[in-house]
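pipeline/complex-builder :: batch 7 item 3
reading input block
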Amino acid sequence: MALKNDRFLKACRREPVDRTPVWFMRQAGRYQAEYRALRERYTLLEICRRPELCARVTALPVRQLGVDAAILFSDIMVPLGPMGIDYELKENVGPVIANPIRSLEDVEALRPLEPEAELPYVFDTIRLLVQELDVPLIGFAGGPFTLASYVIEGRPTRTFVETKSLMYRAPDVWHALMERLTDGVVRHLRAQAAAGAHALQVFDSWVGALEVRDYQQYVLPYMRRLFAETADLGVPRIHFGVGAGHLLPWMREAGGEVIGVDWRVPLADAWERVGDGVAVQGNLDPVLLLAPDHVLKARVEEILDSVRGRRGHIFNLGHGVLPATDPDKLKRVVEWVHQRGGDTR
Amino acid sequence: MALKNDRFLKACRREPVDRTPVWFMRQAGRYQAEYRALRERYTLLEICRRPELCARVTALPVRQLGVDAAILFSDIMVPLGPMGIDYELKENVGPVIANPIRSLEDVEALRPLEPEAELPYVFDTIRLLVQELDVPLIGFAGGPFTLASYVIEGRPTRTFVETKSLMYRAPDVWHALMERLTDGVVRHLRAQAAAGAHALQVFDSWVGALEVRDYQQYVLPYMRRLFAETADLGVPRIHFGVGAGHLLPWMREAGGEVIGVDWRVPLADAWERVGDGVAVQGNLDPVLLLAPDHVLKARVEEILDSVRGRRGHIFNLGHGVLPATDPDKLKRVVEWVHQRGGDTR
């Protein structure tokens, strides 16, 4: 189906838009009554493995909220299963791994990802969605650092002690793991674009835990390769991290047509740091969706005003929608963003 | 006892020093076999309530590691007990509060802190220590935002959903709570200085979760008051936050003779952001203490080199010592820092 609404893709390319495009990270999720009802019958991964159901979950917020893009319903852990990572998505915890990776042998036991053969349901879902949707579909993957942190720690962490100490103690293991993960991520992103995804987001969510020097030494080379090896796809790539204000210039250097930023740094300041050559996506604090309308609306307008007249702003949150969010709030944010017009406002 | 070693205080005042002073946040703690043995018999709070024992725990790392300052062994929750907060320090979790603060009535039920009457053991410990130690003793308190986040959430949080949504939904409750907490913190800091503490650190550990605008509106006025109302004490105040690189200019504006920074931002960049008029403390990633010596030493030297020739650097970690740390590593870091000399190097 031809896209009726391509303002998201135009903004990614820094072309003029009639209205600032808007979508929300985790716009399909626990805040929706329909999703909660489905999750009583299916696990998250069971939804992912049923293309029709997964397409329905992906498309629901597009209709409900009026957002300008859909994002594939999936999880960053999905491509790691066929690579040999035995993971579980534990409720209220996150990914828990039965066999954490700590040695060269562990890394060498990982298998190369064959996305179409091993994750056919992902690409079937994408093919269904691109026929059905009239807005662009965003595919995605986790950044290699973020994936590495899960597979090394074995579960979510605040301190990244195992991850960083492996980096420092056993750089050979670290680099071997990052090579494998980067290969897998590249293949997974390429297959999503081949199936029809119009854009790709790389969630390097936890990379902000690193100091600049460690990012440069242990992560940047892989992010650079990831973006180099997906450049020929011709689809915009969004490069996102949380709490990564200090890394913005290097994330920009690594690549991506769009830099996604969290709420901590004012959006205009973030744009200064990455320069005019890229689009930016962000950056409302998701907790503001729990604020009264007058507070919320003022903040939405402040963000829009702060980058007024610059081409290439995609409105989004600074992180995913929180489960406590009222869907009507999200709907109103979409309306407010759209009411303010686009580049010609 | 007169201080034999006052290079920490000299650096706080940006005076020349023979060697860069060094101490470590959480230098008394789980990484020490002696501490672990004590904790089999006493809870953390039981140690705090026994001045002789608490002084011993505080002084132990000074002798063991050769650091240039001691920090009172205590917890940021300690002054909240007499104010009416019923808290528990839960192993591997953190502070858990039986009666979270969510309404104006909750706030109004809080009592003003009378430190000397209600926490006599804290000041008895300080008086013991200043007689006994030949390095300066640092007293401390949590920042009002950080304390507010615990008492509102009721337990440690990653998202600060309850804290921020109270700020947005009920600014009257928020401001009333921050007033009370600031009062308590000021009284607690003043009483520590009166008992003999040579310096004070304000741990606004979680303030980095806020965007700049929220910091300015909801936190900065209280931090400004906190520093104004402790200025006459004549002791250096260290103002510290984690992941707060984006807030540094405003933390500087709020006050403190020393700005403490975490590992994310290179120390020289952090110093640029706060300007020459203050000393800086930091900023080795605590995970580097788990790295091999050659990696660790190179990082220690990089930090020292990056601020070489500037007056007012206090070497520290970017956050507290991790339990997995080998005490010998800390000892070697102290030696390496001292070997490199001071401002005249």
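note: Chain A is about 45% helix and 10% strand.
queue -> next item
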